[in-house]
Design goal:
Structural class: alpha/beta
CATH topology: Metallo-beta-lactamase, Chain A
Number of strands: 20
Shape: globular
Number of domains: 1
Strand content: 25-35%
Helix content: 10-25%
CATH class: Alpha Beta
Number of helices: 6
Strand order of the largest sheet: 8-5-4-3-2-1-20
CATH superfamily: Ribonuclease Z/Hydroxyacylglutathione hydrolase-like
CATH architecture: 4-Layer Sandwich
Amino acid sequence: MIIKTLVENTALSKNFGCEHGLSLYIESKDRKILFDVGASGLFLENAKKLDTNISDVDYLIISHGHFDHGGGLSVFLRENEKAKVFLHRFAFEKYYALRANGELEYIGLDEKLRQNGRMVFTSDRFLISEGIELFSNVTQKEPLPKSNNGLFMEQNGEIVQDVFAHEQNLLIEENGKTLLVTGCAHNGIINILEYFCELKGRMPDYVIGGFHLFSRSSGNEAPEMIDKISEYLRETKAKFYTCHCTGLEPYKRLKAAMGDSIDYLPAGSEITI
């Protein structure tokens, strides 16, 4: 598989744009997948620089209902006329973030796109094609990231804490290897891996995505929690590539503990697994 980072908070060089968001292009042996589309049309600009044709994408996965993962959806629908878009059935609900000035800001998706005929709404486990599936409904055994505390949703006309039922994860199995892709791991990266193990009876070989150990409003996760996560991840024996909401300082702490078992994916980077 080839994975290209189209959007991330940082960039490999000045040749690539960056923004607070995530978009990953994944090319397997017979399918081309886009996982999230960032906050804008930047994913398209960076894709062109990486010689990637968005019109060739077979499937688009939106990991959850936040604009930094689905803000480029209208641009994608314009550029690609064939791909189905797989979102959780709660992805178009109303979601908010508490900003430093004490105000709530809407951070959900463009509701006008809900009625587009290419939307496929998922729940729990959803098989896209052989070897490609989605799962949500993660059991929350371990504490969730503290940065979730500033994230809310509208429920029955009231603003309540977001429970992240709208978050889904991508699983790709190819040539005897398994790749797990997370968007932000709002449900907790340990919880997601534990649930994956329940479904598959083993840990994945590779994991790519954000771990939500940082937020712009609440800062970094506590060092002792980062250390607990790094110990758990190391014991899985998987290879991790992280980005976006993991945060640079938490990543440095993870890297110091995990060594070669974890690396960072800025916009413009390309890896083969």
